[in-house]
Amino acid sequence: MIIGVDVGTSSVKVALVSGSGAVIREVTVGLDLLTAEGGAAEHNPRQIYSAVVEGIKAVVKGFESKVEAISLSNYLHGVASLDLSMNPLTNILTHLDTRAGAFQYKLLDVGRELYERTGCPPIFVYPLTKILWLREGKGFKDFKRVTFVKDYIIYRLSGVWVLDYGVASGTGLMNIHSLKWDDLALSVAGIDESVLPELVEGSRVVEYIDIPELGLNKVALVPGSFDGALQNIGYSIYGEDAALNLGSTAVVRVLRRDVVVDRSPEMRFFCYYAADGYRAIGAASNNGMTFLEWVRRNIAGGVDWRRVCEDVKNVRPCSDGVIVLPFIGGERFPYRDPYIRLTVLGVGVSHDLRHVLRASMEGVAFVLKAIVNALEENGVKISMLHCSGGGCSIGELVKIVSGATCKSVALYDESVARMASTLGAVAVALRALGHYSGIDTVKFEHVKDRRLGVIEPEPSMCEAYNSCFKRFELALLSVRSLYRAQ
């Protein structure tokens, strides 16, 4: 049996999983997101570690002697400073923290070269940019080491300070080709390798550990990868099949062995390392269910999603000319703009709340369409989207996404969808233990059995959305300069 640990922005999920992918026991331990000042979104690293241990303790009881490995997953782009004894000097700045936004534009001169080296466009979300902000007296004055969450957990569990290529590739500091810390990126950040953890392959055992207080002895510790790549791996999604995440963020992501970066100067998508030789190529929008839940609560009066779906299904595609730019939290990809905000256009006396609600769903779907278009323009063909995240249970939203992208969308039981990253961590552990020759040969029957069906795009909806997507992008182009001037 494998213990999979998935550190997210709101909680730590821990599961005890069999070799077939069946979840024997699971627990969720909440995390506090600290927002003491405008733009702040931080985690306490000690709380994260305590949550990890608490979760392992909860799932392992009675199965201590049967646990082969602990495998880790966590969110990308978190960064904090440490002293020489690995004590935190700052909280972790998560990917939701926007305070480094202005520093994005300090990277313009070297942005393209950094992108081609690291796979990370020059945007505020990356630790590279956050380090620049932190170095201006915000907590890096006396730092000796830099942590990216995963390496801190590994160190506390094992005493070994290492980080997997997957999480490292989401820092903006690792060369995606050589899988080493990149000299140009380090120079820009003003740091050197001495303050960074050693890089390792995530699908290898880094240490066999004992946790006496939990009754665990000689358990393999596997670094795993980041949560997004592990969703693909958990679902066994490779090649032309793509993971679609409709969680707090909205993501399209494929796994391939080659490095692909955007030929366009817009640098609309990322290329990160995943595990076992695979790269994760895709893009993540800040404005998935975070935005749509805000709309439901603050515009729709808090009605449930069933009622929202009933309202919007009677509105024609393109919402009779209403356009919603869904950027309530700025934007990472594909438009890379920390200043853009929620904008509603085209509302007239003939419209009502239903039009705004449908246009809000369409706004998220159009961002996903822009991501799909960018990938396919660069030779990354997508044949099907495999859905995970809470938004996958909202029927009308999935239909709109399918119509806007003109792609089939596979749906899975919620019990599998919410555990996809954890299952991916388990798959990587099975590879690390030598039970499989590669991560792409791990195919969980449990996941296959929980597939609910496929939503096929309607040709008429594809045609309509191809037309109004052009209006969406024109509207976005028209308002971006307005927000930047504020």
Keyword list:
486 residues; alpha/beta; Nucleotidyltransferase, domain 5; globular
What does this structure look like?
- The protein has a domain of 226 residues: ATPase, nucleotide binding domain (Nucleotidyltransferase, domain 5, 2-Layer Sandwich).
- Helices cover 34% and strands 21% of the residues.
- The protein contains 15 helices and 21 strands.
- The strands form six sheets. The chain has a seven-stranded mixed β-sheet, sandwiched between helices. Strands 3-2-1-5-12-11 form a six-stranded mixed β-sheet, sandwiched between helices.
- The longest helix is centred in the C-terminal third of the chain and has 26 residues.
- The termini are far apart.
- The model has no long low-confidence stretch (mean pLDDT 94).
**Overall pLDDT level:** 94
The CATH architecture assignment of the domain at 2-227 turns out to be: 2-Layer Sandwich
DSSP summary, beta strand count: 21
Largest sheet: 7 strands, mixed
Q: Find the CATH topology of the domain at 2-227.
A: Nucleotidyltransferase, domain 5
Helix content: 25-40%
Uncertain runs are: none
- Placed side by side, the strands forming the largest sheet appear as 15-16-14-13-19-20-21
Strand content: 15-25%
What's the tally of helices? Answer: 15
CATH level 1 class label of the domain at 2-227: Alpha Beta
Molecular shape: globular
Q: So, the CATH homologous superfamily of the domain at 2-227?
A: ATPase, nucleotide binding domain
State the end-to-end CA separation.
55 Å
